[in-house]
Amino acid sequence: MMHGLWVQDQGMVDHLAQLVPLLHECASHVTEGSFEKADFSFKKIRMLTIADGPLQHLSKIIVDSLAHRLLSSIQGLPGALIDPSDYFEKSTLWAARHNFFKLNPYLSTGFVTINWAIMEAMEDEKVELQVVHIVDLSCSAAHPWQWLKLLDDFHGRPGGAPELYLTVLHDDNDFLAEMQSLLSKKAESLEVSFRFISVIGRLETLDFSNLRSTFQIKFGVAVAISCALQMHRLLLVDDNLSSTSIAQLQKMANFTQPKQMASSVCSPASTLNYLQTPSPRTPKLLARLLSAIRALKPNIMVIMEQDADHNTLLFRDRFNEVLNYYAALFDCFHAVAAANPGRTDERLRVERMILREEIKNILVCEGVHRHERHERLDQWAMHMEESGFHNVQLSFSAIREVGLSVRGNSRAADYIQISHSGCSVQHMSGSSRGMFQDDMLSSATSSPASSVYSPSPSPSNGSWVQELSHDQQSVRLIGLLYQCAAEVSAGSFDRANLCLEHITQLASLDAPHALQRLAAVFADALARKLLNLIPGLSRALLSSANSADAHLVPCRAPPHVRRAPVPEARAMEGERFVHLVDFSGPVANPVQWIALFHAFRGRREGPPHLRITAVHDSKEFLANMAAVLSKEAEAFDIAFQFNAVEAKLDEMDFDALRHDLGVRSGEALAVSVVLQLHRLLAVDDGRRHAAAGCLTPVQIIARSSPRSFGELLERELNTRLQLSPDASVVSSLSPHSPAAATAAHPMTSTPKLGSFLSAVRSLSPKIMVMTEQEANHNGGAFQERFDEALNYYASLFDCLQRSAAAAAERARVERVLLGEEIRGVVACEGAERTERHERARQWAARMEAAGMESVGLSYSGAMEARKLLQSCGWAGPYEVRHDAGGHGFFFCWHKRPLYAVTAWRPAASRRGHTRS
């Protein structure tokens, strides 16, 4: 607690001054392989990265990479962790790359430079039948803007535009189709003869044996090759060395490099006096490509690359360069986004989806897996010259035009300088240079490169999997999951880790069978439960919840949670002014309320004046929801108003609920809460033993001084099991236990839920409709929760597998919505365990204790929900079962209830009651 206050009292400058040495210190501990010291560094860094700033954002990504590198020497557990990049969709990746272009002034300037170089190289090609063939090898960095501008430039040339051929290499056919459409329309409007040629693939996997045929280049035409931010991927070599060799190199570097050189090797712009690993020869893959391109006899080849030295063998050198280079880049992006606040989400998307992947690859991977091998200009010049290419200087007029382009771009003018040294080099100008030193890194040897992303050491190397049939694999997977959970409960790290290793050989997020995908998600949750015992390390890892746009995906959840709004429509019959409050947060969906528009429009007296207030933590989502509903309301001729409340339900001030929601007198109020109320059940159930003399994780680490990560976790597990409240408190609450419905007064153990329900009751809503998971995941004992969760989500994954939903949509729901739920149920404890699902009968006891009474849901409401399922292609074993007492209905799969819908209002004896 004192540490938190101490951090808050420091100024931002002090924070930055502390953060940089801590990052170096943490990298040193990772290099040593010291889990205890690194864990402590992770905790200190996390306290300093709460503020919003470029270095803080970069630090979160760097410590995530350091944590992954620290774990990479362990077999089993790292492979079970699901990386945020596994949640990236094609559409969001496209958006991130487009945002990268918009936020990055260097890219647009680089494209302008490439275009001018091509234009100048083609000046001598003024023949009667002029044909220019351009090959774009930029792959994921390709952008239509570059070639749209070139079409304009060629069109404005005094001699007119030549006949243009453009071959684009990319691994996404949809992207190529969209690019072809854009460029073809542009060429047609300019009356330029143009042909687009698509080549599906990646540069590093391209067949170099016959590029002329692959790119469809005719003999006798002028050829230009363009490659942006891709050539470094061909520098990969299998540079895995034995730990002894790396140790010797590290010691030599530490012995021979004076510490006073630290300040002279910081500048990302400097190419002189920089300690770098010399490249003896051009790697074979790059040499083969350049040889194949040279055989095409191109008029010019233009490359654009990151001017950084990330291709060094020693980890410490790469870390220093990464910290310097990306600090300047993050600083630039924050400045561009600050000039346009609407681009904050774009910046976050770029940082997490583009730059994080680069940084992680540089810092975590080794050998052929490390493909982000950026080098400096002089190194590239050497590679090109060795391959038979000579430098082509841009003319003064070209440099002048590029300079004009920079000055005309307000976002680029402050960050780019042009130097004429045979090519155009973009330099970053910012205050972040010179603030990093490398003398914090110790002389300890690097961890063996072969241990990073290397195959499993299992003697059979996974061959046993091939010998099993699908049914045998399924049985084996279920047994391994239960065994792994039991080993976690027993505190046996080695056995749990071995189980995880075997599970990952059988399971995959992309597997065709639901059980394999479910097992991959549960393996991730079990691995994180082990890591959560080392909180600094665990929190250093970025989860899928941190991934860009993850908060937008669940809105496309299955129709189980997109019920027809029949209860609200019935409750509002005859009302002229209706206010509906949607607390559904991440699973909110405007489609549900469009159905309400239909119901209101069909009323005999006409639709009411409708206000909808939505509570969500994403401004972007709220804006989209407002636009969709406003458009539909206009089409239905309904007087409509949308209010956005940017917040999370569990973080709201319930004392100010009336004010925050804008509740007015004279309006009939309806409240809808979907899959959110259980989050208010979270309590810090570890505090009950705070006075029992329990050791903190740091104290346990300090006293035990374990030699390995396995020992550390086993000691921590055993200690936690001895002290855990879960082992002795409410462990008897099984889903079928009588005690489950008659436990201690619910309001005393869940003050947050009590405050919320009291606040809602004071608003006197005509109806409050809640949808919750029909499961018992709020038990105290871990093994009990795991068993219940595995059975529940197995049914849900099987249900989704049989649905008519597209594979991509199903994957989104499984990975983001359900994956986060499973992780919350299995991996978390105490106040962090917010996924505390309970059954309908338990919710009934809580609601009645809070002064609410049940509102019967009619059978017709259940029938409307059934129609919705059928309209979405959900039939067969799917059914909607009406509660025998008429209190609610259940969405079921093979007669197993998955979700329950119930309705409530203030009890008659307490209506009009308000809190004092």
Describe this structure in words.
With 916 residues, the chain is of the alpha/beta class. It folds into three domains: 1-82 and 455-541 and 686-728 and 779-835, no CATH class; 98-255 and 262-413; 552-676 and 751-773 and 838-858 and 898-906, 3-Layer(aba) Sandwich (Rossmann fold). α2 (12-32) packs parallel to α4, α7 crosses α8 and α24 runs parallel beside α25. Residues 1-10, 241-247, 253-279, 415-460, 550-556, 687-707 and 720-749 have low confidence and may be disordered.
List the helices and strands and how they pair.
Elements: H1 2-9, H2 12-32, H3 35-48, H4 54-71, H5 77-80, H6 90-103, H7 105-121, E1 131-136, H8 144-155, E2 163-170, H9 173-190, E3 194-200, H10 211-215, E4 222-228, H11 243-256, H12 284-295, E5 300-304, H13 315-339, H14 344-364, H15 377-386, H16 396-407, H17 410-413, H18 463-466, H19 470-490, H20 493-506, H21 514-531, H22 535-540, H23 566-571, E6 577-582, H24 590-601, E7 609-616, H25 619-635, E8 640-646, H26 657-661, E9 668-674, H27 697-704, H28 709-723, H29 746-749, H30 751-762, E10 767-773, H31 782-801, H32 807-827, H33 840-849, E11 852-854, H34 859-871, E12 878-882, E13 888-893, E14 896-906
Parallel strand pairs: 1-2, 1-4, 2-3, 4-5, 6-7, 6-9, 7-8, 9-10
Antiparallel strand pairs: 10-14, 11-14, 12-13, 13-14
Helix pairs in contact: 2-3, 2-4, 2-13, 3-4, 4-13, 4-14, 6-14, 7-8, 7-16, 8-9, 13-14, 19-20, 19-21, 19-31, 20-21, 21-31, 21-32, 24-25, 27-28, 31-32
InterPro entries: TF_GRAS
Biased composition (Low complexity): 442-463
Motif (LXXLL motif): 677-681
